[in-house]
Amino acid sequence: MRTVGKCLDHIRSMDGASAIEVVLVDNGSTDGTFAAMQEFCRANPNLWRAIQETKPGNSAGRNTGIMASSGGVILFIDDDCYPDRDFASAWKAVFAQDPGLGFGSGRILPYDARQSPLGCNTSTTIKILTSSTFIQRGFVQGSNMAFRRQCLIDAGMFDAHFGAGTPFAGEEWEVAVRSSYAGWTGGYFPQPSVAHDHGRFVDEAFVRGHYYDIGAGAVYAKHLLTAHASATIVEIARDIRRQIRKGAAVGPLFGGAMQYYSTMLRQARS
Question: What residues does each domain of the chain span?
Fold first, then answer.
């Protein structure tokens, strides 16, 4: 609830906001968030709606929001992100330039310089990824991302085993990998920008980073069981080298993989 009001104010202030379809998904909050969303939507009931998804995890929430929306291109932000005024129009321009573009991530600026840079991407350089490649983790971030609806359909939507509210982070990266192998190109585009007010400082960022590493191990574990297992192995090796270079532990990657397999086995037996 700390950031929801400010997030909604920024959405309301976007260029042409009254003509933009806005779907707000509450994923089991108990702090008045859903009431604030409902109040926001009363100003434009034809295009703005607030819905609830009781199944834990933001992948479940994202899928519910997708099904409730109608647009051909779907933009995603989190409730601690404040979009620029031209956020929607910038994404519209990005997708209009390339009909083969299925997904993208935008610039994520730190709202407060004292907070950890974890979860931000301040690059001003466009980067395009060809289809049928294993996307590097961190390339697509849920704080500012966009997908064509058809891309998500082709990929099979978000996997509810992943995302905040579940044991495994990385739902946006995981669906981007499937999108790429479904034949869609992806990219990073600095024009659509948000300010990320995540509120995490050094200690909290360390805990969050550990959660991200466990999620990465789970994503790798899932894709080792697919037709692109060989590409997954190559990316695992690259990730381990990156972790070692920055002095980070690699144990959480392996731990996340084992936890994922254990979860899948337990579910198969139930």
Answer: 1-196, 204-268
